[in-house]
């Protein structure tokens, strides 16, 4: 777990636990009204709390804790209510308190809690004595778990422990690699309207028109500053229809309570890396967790030994933007050309400059790229052109290239691996 996670004195959570027990003494039965999660019809049930256990670091006597973990045994008549609504009715909505329905052995968290301490067993029970009976222990810190090696807490993401443990296994096998970058205080400062670059206008519109939630809006200034370093040539656009997804170049940002679904990488040349960005919280950690294909990922292995050449100016790839001025609709398509040989790339410069004024001529360098480095290029364009072949990286690109589907990584490998006996015809860069 990142060192930026906040922890609080034990006494802070003792006061919260007392308030919850007092609340249960006053009223342990609630009638809840809610809508069915799928059928969207009104439902109601009556739920009664019968027992409450404290688990985790507080139950072990830790002198400081990250949160207070509670398990509440509940008996309900009628349809099962939403967990958050049920726990809020029974225990209130106190910050840094995690309430799970069930028993320590089987509950809504999905994990078994060892060494629980029963605190409350019904109105009038001796819960104060049960709290006082837990001996503070300076050596009783947070229980270590394998997933502590991950940047974020489980409750910051929309996933479960088994999936996170699988990520660790994939990293050990070299199938995945990642790094975490924490937001510092300066990066969280708001961005003035004049600070946005042309490629960041999508972010500017989100801030101005509030296309997304207020919590997501707070993420956009630090993300904009961060992506300027990670994707300096990347353009922003939304991940329609999901308002909590945004693209910048070849990086797909998942915001709010993200799900680390690494199957997204499979054979997708547009996606270079996933950026998981939970909502900002007082407890933290706050930042970006970047996941990429590792050296042993199937896509990385498929690209090994594959190389190409491209044209670059001042370190940035030369991308041609085609603009469709159809009546009532204007669309831009970014096209990047890859060359099979260094000589082909030099001819590309000559053809680009043919018939142009000296001041408008391209002064580009031929740059070689190989293996996984190709993914930085494929994520920066809508169409990848290799000789006479046009491969669509985006839906905008599929319309331009006249393709019914997006290209797979295997299509790029095939195109670059193909040998050609004849020199390609001239290309039109107008």
UniProtKB/TrEMBL annotation:
Name under which the protein is recorded: Polymerase nucleotidyl transferase domain-containing protein
């Amino acid at each position: 777990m990142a060192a930026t996670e906040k922890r609080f004195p034990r006494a802070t959570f003792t006061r919260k636990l007392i308030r919850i027990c007092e609340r249960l003494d006053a009223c342990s039965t609630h009638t809840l009204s809610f809508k069915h999660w799928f059928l969207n019809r009104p439902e109601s049930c009556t739920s009664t709390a019968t027992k409450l256990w404290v688990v985790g670091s507080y139950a072990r006597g830790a002198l400081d804790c990250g949160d207070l973990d509670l398990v509440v045994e509940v008996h309900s008549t009628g349809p099962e209510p939403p967990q958050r609504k049920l726990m809020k009715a029974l225990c209130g909505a106190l910050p840094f308190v995690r309430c799970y329905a069930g028993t320590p052995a089987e509950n809504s968290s999905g994990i078994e809690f060892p060494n629980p301490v029963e605190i409350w067993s019904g109105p009038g029970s001796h819960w104060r004595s049960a709290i006082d009976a837990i001996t503070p222990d300076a050596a009783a810190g947070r229980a270590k778990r394998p997933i502590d090696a991950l940047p974020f807490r489980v409750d910051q993401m929309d996933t479960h422990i088994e999936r996170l443990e699988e990520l660790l296994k994939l990293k050990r096998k070299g199938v995945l690699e990642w790094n975490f970058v924490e937001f510092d205080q300066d990066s969280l400062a708001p961005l003035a309207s004049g600070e946005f670059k042309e490629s960041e206008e999508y972010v500017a519109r989100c801030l101005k028109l509030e296309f997304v939630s207020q919590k997501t809006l707070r993420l956009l200034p630090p993300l904009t500053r961060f992506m300027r370093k990670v994707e300096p040539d990347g353009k922003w656009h939304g991940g329609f229809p999901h308002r909590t997804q945004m693209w910048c170049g070849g990086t797909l940002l998942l915001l709010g309570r993200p799900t680390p679904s690494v199957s997204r990488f499979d054979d997708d040349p547009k996606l270079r890396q996933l950026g998981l960005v939970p909502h900002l919280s007082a407890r933290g950690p706050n930042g970006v967790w970047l996941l990429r294909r590792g050296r042993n990922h199937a896509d990385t292995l498929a690209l090994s030994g594959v190389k190409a050449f491209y044209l670059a100016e001042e370190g940035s790839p030369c991308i041609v933007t085609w603009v469709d001025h159809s009546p009532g609709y204007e669309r831009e398509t970014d096209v990047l050309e890859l060359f099979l040989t260094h000589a082909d790339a030099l001819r590309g410069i000559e053809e680009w400059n043919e018939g142009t004024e000296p001041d408008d001529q391209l002064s580009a360098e031929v740059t070689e790229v190989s293996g996984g480095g190709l993914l930085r290029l494929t994520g920066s364009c809508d169409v990848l052109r290799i000789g006479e072949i046009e491969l669509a990286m985006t839906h905008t690109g599929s319309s331009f290239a006249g393709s019914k589907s997006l290209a797979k990584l295997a299509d790029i490998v095939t195109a670059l691996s193909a040998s050609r006996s004849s020199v390609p015809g001239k290309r039109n860069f107008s």
